[in-house]
Design goal:
Length: about 290
């Protein structure tokens, strides 16, 4: 099991800056923005604390989950807490895919060193399918696996089709819950349904065999990922209501309140190119802030 302090040490091992404030820890998810550490928890910092974070972090803003009773955009966390989780909890179509995946793939725990080598293709294929930029490129890839292996609470899981690693998953235990942190799969192995077999097996392991309270699978994303969320819902996960708040630096916030500036951000977010991911995330942050009441 892991606590927030240990998670922050893991982030620092990856090269992230971590800042502590009275109510939480925060890390630089990129050089412009900070996020709660760990991200799946709910935070309630006041205005003074947020302004202090912006000064210490020298950043443009911060994003965090907060209780449904607080200020922020109505959002959700993807969760499964079904203590009777099993094939009967899934639709007929998904049950069929899980069964086919379990028939074709061997699923089980794997060593982090194995994923550091065998998981590169699955990682690259997934980012390409989803049209997203990767943060685990180059040296950070090796640093991630070394840090995960050295941090309590991390576990690695794989779905093998013969000798090929078709999909992998990294889980992190926090107390009586588990977060699915990193899920990747090879495009040319999707016909063997490794994702269905892997997610089903590990979810059942956590909820039924280990008796943990819940499995979480991320917050509502900044970018549109409807198909990805629908896959998770099909695997027995559901939306747990909460709010997400985006707090901008006062100067940036004032600029973004100008309608022409907001229109420019949205115009760039639909363009293609090397910086397309940056602009999609920027548009997502803008939407979260607008819908959350700034």
């Amino acid at each position: 099991m892991m606590n927030a302090t240990e998670f922050c040490k893991f982030l620092e091992a990856l090269g992230h800056r971590v800042i502590g404030t009275p109510s939480a820890h925060w890390y630089d998810v990129n050089r412009f923005f900070f996020q709660g550490a760990p991200p799946h928890l709910e935070y309630q910092p006041d205005q003074k604390e947020l302004r202090s974070l912006l000064r210490q972090g020298r950043c443009f803003g911060v994003r965090f989950a907060t209780p449904i009773s607080c200020q922020g955009m109505a959002s959700y966390q993807i969760v499964c807490d079904n203590r009777s989780y099993g094939l009967e909890a899934l639709s007929g179509n998904v049950r069929s895919k899980v069964r086919r995946g379990l028939k074709r793939c061997t699923v089980g725990a794997v060593d982090f060193s194995v994923l550091a080598t065998a998981g590169r293709k699955a990682h690259g294929d997934t980012l390409a399918r989803q049209g997203r930029d990767g943060v685990l490129d180059g040296e950070r890839w090796d640093r991630f696996w070394a840090a995960a292996a050295a941090t309590p609470g991390f576990e690695a899981w794989g779905a093998w089709n013969g000798d090929t690693l078709a999909a992998f998953l990294v889980s992190v235990a926090f107390g009586d819950s588990v977060e699915f942190m990193l899920a990747r799969s090879c495009t040319d192995e999707l016909g063997a349904y490794p994702n269905n077999a892997l997610i089903y097996t590990v979810t059942e392991e956590m909820l039924i065999r280990r008796g943990l309270r819940e499995v979480t699978f991320g917050l509502e994303a900044l970018e549109p990922v409807t198909a990805l969320d629908e896959f998770k819902f099909g695997m027995g996960f559901s939306k747990r209501p909460l709010r997400q708040r985006v707090f901008f630096h006062p100067v940036l916030g004032a600029m973004l309140r100008v309608s022409s500036v907001r229109a420019l951000v949205r115009r760039y977010s639909v363009r293609r190119g090397q910086d397309a991911g940056f602009w999609r995330k920027a548009a997502g942050l803008l939407r979260f802030a607008e819908e959350g009441g700034w």
